[in-house]
Amino acid sequence: MKVLGLTCGRKMSNTEIVVKEALMGAEEMGASVEIVRLMDLDIKPCTGCNACVIDLFEKGGSGDCVIKNDDFKFIDDKILDCDGIIVGTPIYEKTPQGLLKCLNDRMGPSHDLAFRMIAKKIRAEKGITKGKGPDERSFKPHVASLFAVGGSDWTTLALPLLQIFALPMNMTVVDQQLFNWTALPSTVVLKDEMLKRARRSGRHVAETLKKPIEEAAYIGPKGVCPVCHCDVIELGKTGDKAVCAVCGVKGTLNTTGADYALAVTEDDWAHSHVLLSGKFKHGEELKTRSLKPDPRMKEIPLLIEKYKSYLTYSRPETAVK
Ligand SMILES: Cc1cc2nc3c(=O)[nH]c(=O)nc-3n(C[C@H](O)[C@H](O)[C@H](O)COP(=O)(O)O)c2cc1C
């Protein structure tokens, strides 16, 4: 049972300390542990080429990213290999550290569990034996605990975006925790309650890994969304229904005093993006709607001509041409 700590903050500062505390908890429960500092890695941004999705959907391929001149393969291997992961990020501008978003984009569509299952099926049905199929480690359960460390309580989008990091691979999020008012370097070591909370989380991840994944229990704050426990809800987008910002589930927002809860029907529940059923629905939408060629496709080269010839890019002198 392998538990990976992925920390995105300053060296030996607050995020790293709570992640290490959680790893100590996991180790206490028998896990083998390892830590990676995201800032040690060179992760290039996704270029939007879609080669990963095309490879999965059209060739039953691996969906591997075509960018090879960075450390993505290193971290991809670590994440696929582990059974549990503790992801910790400092909060910058109410959101996780930016490099994590780069990693999320690189691991998004290419690692979507439903897309990889579709690729595996295509491979089997068409009897494809050439080239690589999706990595088998994509299909094993991954358990996650998510930490966000902030210097204040300006934290709104931190945990939701961490959840979105866990979403494509269908990680089972068993805990999420904000550590607020912890701005100065390493000061979290003075906060016993936070250290205890982090250690409890790591212990819980390891304990969860000893049981069948169906028995995984969530120990974080309840949240408004009953499916993913997110607190950020969009209003006024789909008629009278409210939408969870993380898992996209629709429901009716009810209030009881100061408490808010999203009431979700069984049918809507199945469409949540954190569930495999929701991921397959999204895969179908991509095939039948968003990636479906437009009948006027042939007109595009002519129509974009005026944008191509309009302006030249302003770039620093040192930019690669
Ligand atoms: C660019 C930047 C933006 C920040 N924005 C926020 C913020 O929106 N909310 C917050 O609570 N803390 C914010 N902080 C404070 C950090 O989250 C805090 O110092 C945290 O302890 C950093 O984690 P570390 O010690 O592990 O590096 C910001 C810090 C930086 C450098």
Key features?
35% helix; 321 residues; Rossmann fold; four-stranded antiparallel β-sheet; alpha/beta; 19% strand; six-stranded mixed β-sheet; binds flavin mononucleotide
Question: Would you mind describing this structure in some detail?
Answer:
There is one protein chain. By secondary structure, this protein is an alpha/beta fold. It is built from 11 helices and 10 strands. The chain folds into 2 domains: 2-219, Rossmann fold; 222-321, no CATH class. Helix content is 35%, strand content 19%. Strands 1, 2, 3, 4, 5 and 6 form a 6-stranded mixed β-sheet that branches. The protein is globular. The model has no long low-confidence stretch (mean pLDDT 95).
Q: Can you give me a brief rundown of this structure?
A:
This protein has 321 residues and is of the alpha/beta class. It has eleven helices and ten strands. α1 crosses α7, α2 runs parallel beside α5 and α4 packs parallel to α6.
Furnish the topology, listing elements before pairings.
Blueprint: E1 2-7, H1 14-28, E2 32-37, H2 51-59, H3 72-81, E3 84-92, E4 95-96, H4 98-107, H5 113-126, E5 143-149, H6 158-166, E6 172-179, H7 192-209, E7 233-238, E8 241-244, E9 250-256, E10 259-263, H8 266-269, H9 276-290, H10 300-303, H11 305-308
Helix pairs in contact: 1-7, 2-5, 4-6
Bound molecules: flavin mononucleotide (FMN).
